[in-house]
Amino acid sequence: MHDQTIARLSAGLAAGEFSSEELTRVFLDRIERFNPGLNAFITVTEESALAQARAADQRRRRGEAGPLTGVPIAQKDIFCTDGVRTSCGSRMLDRFIAPYNATVVEKLNAAGAVMLGKTNMDEFAMGSSNETSFYGPVRNPWDLDAVPGGSSGGSAAAVAARLTPGATGTDTGGSIRQPAALCGITGIKPTYGRVSRWGMIAYASSLDQGGPMARTAEDCAWLLGTMAGFDPRDSTSADRPVPDYAAALDRPLEGLKIGLPEEYFGEGLDSAVARAVDAAIAEYRTLGAKILEVSLPNSRLAVPAYYVIAPAECSSNLARFDGVRYGHRCEQPKDLLDLYTRSRAEGFGAEVTRRILVGTFALSAGYYDAYYLKAQQIRRLISDDFQRAFEQVDLIAGPTSPTVAFNLGEKTDDPITMYLSDIYTIAVNLAGLPGLSLPVGFVGQRPAGLQLIGNYFAEDRLLNAAHRYQQATDWHARAPVAFA
Ligand code: GLN
Questions:
Q1: Of 113, 213, 265, 482, whose CA is between 20 and 30 Å from 59?
Q2: Which of 131, 208, 403, 422 to mutate to test the pocket of ligand 1 (most atoms within 8 A of CB)?
């Protein structure tokens, strides 16, 4: 059962081949067996999972089940879960029990999905390797010496290792797509505003977006259909109907125009990753797509602009962790200032501290115009580049990340090299566009991913294009040997 997709498990539940309780036990057993070696979960909610599974089975007997009823999933530990620790990968929130559910959690619960637990992540979603987590790094199921990517590294590793058939992630600069690529699974970052951010701990609010991670585009379609939708509690939530993503999956690709940005195939791209991406593009040609060249001339400015804007927003968002209201509080503060400074110094790790400092600096009087304002102007240029490209093409394709998974510890001393692993994903967040990563091959035993970028609210087209490719190929069906 553990090797089945959500679509298949859902059909099995509907046909009465197994109960949700049986299915949930299969995954809980696998988590117990494999999680110690992978560290993909921070918290396993065994009891409530079994209770949810039994409730799902009853709901099915009453004839009230939907497609996700009784299907196990995992939640990234950035989503608030009522009564369950919500750590955000940080010592700051190590003992924080959320008093309410994030909208995404509420929606998946309402659909009858069973939460197996909360997945490991880079601290406050800041990282590309899952090595900044207070709970230690996650290992990549394809090669235990390799990182799973980040920040949604726990979700990606858990799906790849068949510890859960699907999971949630969040993506501020690549954190769904890059770990999906490095772990050989499928993940989609929706258009900004498509999925509610309410109850999702904020990193950089103008960039953060939640989305699904699973083995196939079809499974992502089902999850996204449940997660998406207008939420009056999130003022940036898009008030437009959620299409039936699953219904659009089979559309033929004849005549689909796919643009290849020359800037995504230049220096810095590993040649073996480039070969896997080229082969995937050739497959799209076979499927009837027209391949065109496009240009995104301001691409090289995306990483520098992001590393002003994201830290600026994080310095403001993380000001709430002051040791007073919730989160870590130092022992015996001697006065209020000591309480603030020691609680924050003890609660935050090195990368988070670095970003708060950079962000505070970039926003300070005298530097605001030189850094923050400039970065916002670049952001507009980057969005304009995409809009010009979308006048010529329907989708844009390229590598998700310049390399396959790197070794644990390989980039931890060099933040700039680490930041460059998101060089192809970050611009998509700056523009607020949807982007999807799907597995398209291997370099040695490590997976490579293809990124597809769509225009605003073109999630249906992205999922459709990924699904057709997955019907013609089997990269998404491969399992890491030790977890097959
Ligand atoms: N790696 C990028 C960063 O560290 C993106 C992280 C994310 O998308 N949450 O900020």
A1: 213
A2: 422
For the Cβ of 430 lying below 6 angstroms from any atom of ligand 1, the answer is: no
Each residue's pLDDT tens digit, 114-141: 999 999 999 999 999 999 999 999 999 9
List the one residue out of 300, 306, 415, 298 whose CA is nearest residue 354.
415
Q: Which helix (H) or strand (E) holds 384?
A: helix 374-392
Q: Does residue 9 have its Cβ closer than 6 Å to ligand 1?
A: no
| Alpha carbon of 128 to ligand 1 centroid (Å) | 6
Q: Answer yes or no: is the C-beta of 153 below 6 A from any ligand 1 atom.
A: no
Distance (Å) from CA 15 to ligand 1 centroid: 41
- Greatest extent of the chain over all pairs of C-alpha atoms, in Å: 70
Distance 124 CA to ligand 1 centre (A): 9
Q: Is the confidence at residue 415, as pLDDT, over 90? A: no
Strands 257-261 and 446-454, by their bridges, are unpaired
- Residue 213: strand pairing partners: 167, 187
Ligand 1 mean position, distance from CA 217 (Å): 23
Please say whether the beta carbons of 68 and 112 come within 8 A: yes
What is the pairing mode between strands 257-261 and 166-170? unpaired
Active site members: 76, 151, 175
Predicted TM-score (pTM) of the model is 0.98
Q: pLDDT at residue 417 above 90?
A: no
**Cβ(172) – ligand 1 distance below 6 Å:** yes
pLDDT at 298 exceeding the cut of 90 = yes
The answer for residues whose C-beta is within 8 angstroms of residue 313's C-beta and 6 or more apart is: 202, 203, 204, 205, 206, 207, 359
Q: Is 63 left (phi over 0), alpha (psi -120 to 50) or beta?
A: left
Ligand 1 pocket member 200 (CB < 6 A): no
CA-to-CA distance for 439 and 474, rounded, in angstroms?
9
> Could you tell me if the CB of 126 is within 6 A of ligand 1?
yes
Domains of the chain: residue spans and CATH = 6-245+458-483 (3.90.1300.10)
Smallest CA separation from ligand 1 atom 10, residue: 126
Nearest to 193 by CA among 436, 433, 454, 388: 433
Count the alpha carbons within 13 Å of 244 in the hemisphere toward its beta carbon.
6
210-262 pLDDT, tens digit per residue, is: 999 999 999 999 999 999 999 999 999 999 999 999 999 999 999 999 999 99
Q: Indicate the helix (H) or strand (E) that contains 32.
A: helix 20-38
pLDDT in tens, 26-69: 999 999 999 999 999 999 999 999 999 999 999 999 999 999 99
Confirm or reject: Cβ of 127 under 6 Å from ligand 1: yes
Strands (E), 410-445: 435-443
Distance separating alpha carbons of residues 473 and 377, to the nearest angstrom: 41
